Amino acid sequence: DATEWLEGYLNNFGGALIVVSHDRRFLDNVVNSIAELDNGRLTRYRGNFTAYWNIRAEKLRDAEENERRRQEEIARIEEFWRKNKAGQNRNLAWSRHKAAERLRAQSTSGPSRFQPLKASVQSRQRSGNEVVLVERLGKRFGDRMLFHDFTMLLTRGQRVGVIGPNGSGKTTFLRIVLGLEAPSEGTVRMGASVIPGYFAQEGADLETDLSVLEALLDIQDMPPAEARSFLARWQFTGDAVFKQVGQLSGGERNRLALARLALLKPNLLVLDEPTNHLDIVAREALTDMLRTYDGTLILASHDRYLLDEVTAHTLVIADGEARLYEGAYSAWKQSHERELQRAAHRQTKETATAAEKPRTSFELSRLRRQALRDVSRAEQRVQEAEDWVRRLEECLSHPEPSDDVVRLAAEYEQAQDELAQAMAEWEAAMTRAESLSVSL
Ligand SMILES: Nc1ncnc2c1ncn2[C@@H]1O[C@H](COP(=O)(O)OP(=O)(O)OP(=O)(O)O)[C@@H](O)[C@H]1O
Ligand SMILES: [Mg+2]
Predict the structure, then answer these.
(1) Please, where are the H alpha helices in 324-360?
(2) What span, in angstroms and rounded, lies between the C-alpha atoms of 302 and 5?
(3) 164 with 248, same domain?
(4) Less packed terminus of the chain by CB within 10 Å, N or C?
(5) pLDDT exceeds 90 at position 331
């Protein structure tokens, strides 16, 4: 929600914008140019993230094609040199040989190939068909209810995205499912032969005084050389495997947590914000990894691209409720917005019909006067809200250096809400007036 609010705000913002982000959906929605900093070189691409990503892939293919041709040419010339260096074409062969050397020394251009993580997670064995059974589950902290009366059966191979605003209870829900936290009411049962693997938010379950290597061997013992080549697939090479877990960066910590999961081979993956701190390449690798994972998946994330790519159901935890929907994030979002509109429409209608029926002509004229007053009051409210929105739009499109744009943007949201409410009130007043046959 916060990300979408920020997108909306930035899209209305009239000034220039430079943003650093690993969130491809966010970049797609907000920017019209990408600058990539790669090997000390800054390259500009027109368009949003997807455009940049496609052009980059194309450039990379072109560069590879050029490189292939260059190598062929070198091989051809070298062959000529080998055959002729002792014969009568010796001088020509020598100059060709020099040409091949020059060709070899030429630097290849084009974007560098990102070092991808060559990693995957598969399950060790199949679980039974029923993986997690949640019945009438509820959780409260003090008098705050996170969710209650939530029932769900997760079957083998299902992929559920868990979404909701910060602090709504996503992490708490995952921990209850794994038996790390007790529910306030209801039960959770794991099915037969379920091997759960948990990726805790911010790597919170990693022991900080172990080295990277020890943290891996903690899951499964194996010869050091094997462990090191396994870690190399997760980009821990050389001395990096001796680093203390407590000293790892956020992204490194996440990679270690994923490496441990890959070794564990769980058939139920429970991931809590696995993309935090990961750069785009690592996110791509994670996306691929989850796409090809053969087990059951529960994934709490704010990364809309990842959710759309790897989940098929959406569990929304918000406002003290947990609800499971068909479809990934974007599908849920669309139907949710339609539902909100329908609810607003229904409310307008209900206010209109719930009004009392007049019994006498005296009462009728009193109600008509009242309805007229309501309409004009509502009109005034709409006008004031419109002025408020317009003033803020002006400020936001030409902000003074002294303006607090974040505060202005928050106020802009408020003003838009006020306008929406005023419009709804005006519509209700109009409907009411019409039902009393007031001439306006
Ligand atoms: N042990 C605890 N005692 C009291 N309150 C807690 C406890 N653990 C979590 N909470 C509260 O429960 C709420 C839900 O926390 P939780 O970590 O599940 O949120 P979340 O949805 O995962 O948020 P985020 O998106 O920031 O990760 C928060 O308000 C948190 O402060
Ligand atoms: Mg959380």
Answers:
(1) 329-354
(2) 13
(3) yes
(4) C
(5) yes
Cα gap 282→264, rounded to integer Å = 20
In which domain, by residue range, is 400 found? 355-435
Q: Which atom of ligand 1 is nearest to the CA of 168?
A: 21
pLDDT at 398: 79
* Residue 56 forms part of a structural domain: yes
Spell out which residues have Cβ within 5 A of ligand 2, the ion: 170-171, 201
Burial class (CB in 10 A: 0-12, 13-18, 19+), 121: buried
Q: Are residues 222 and 365 in the same domain?
A: no
Q: What is the pLDDT of residues 276-325, one digit of tens each?
A: 888 888 888 899 999 999 999 999 999 999 999 999 999 999 999 999 99
The predicted pLDDT at position 179 comes to 96
Q: Please give the tally of structural domains in the chain.
A: 3
* Angle in degrees, 0-180, between the axes of helices 250-264 and 224-232, rounded to the nearest 10: 120
In the block, residue with structure tokens 């909306």 = 8
Mean pLDDT (whole number) for 393-409: 81
In a domain, 10, yes or no: no
Per-residue confidence band for 367, with pLDDT thresholds at 50, 70 and 90: confident
Q: Are 195 and 327 part of one and the same domain?
A: yes
Atom of ligand 1 nearest to the CA of 173: 18
86 and 186 assigned to the same domain: no
Mean pLDDT of the chain: 88
Q: Determine the average pLDDT of the residues in 257-274.
A: 94
The set of residues, in sequence order, having a beta carbon less than 8 Å from that of 391 and lying 6+ positions away, is none
Work out which ligand 1 atom sits closest to the CA atom of 142: 4
Burial 392-425 (b: 16+ CB within 10 A, else e): beebbeeeeeeeeeeebbebbeebbebbeebbbb
Q: Which of 170, 180, 299, 317 has the most ligand 1 atoms within 8 A of CB, as the residue to mutate?
A: 170
Q: What separation in Å is there between the alpha carbon of 291 and the centre of ligand 2? A: 22
Does 140 lie in the same domain as 46? no
**Per-residue CA distances from 61 to 56, 113, 230, 285 (Å):** 9, 10, 29, 19
Say how far apart CA 337 and CA 130 lie, in whole Å: 32
Query: Poorest-confidence range of 21-25, 34-38, 116-120, 133-137?
Result: 116-120
Q: Compare 73 and 154 and report the one with higher pLDDT.
A: 154
Q: Are residues 313 and 385 in the same domain?
A: no
225 in the same domain as 139: yes
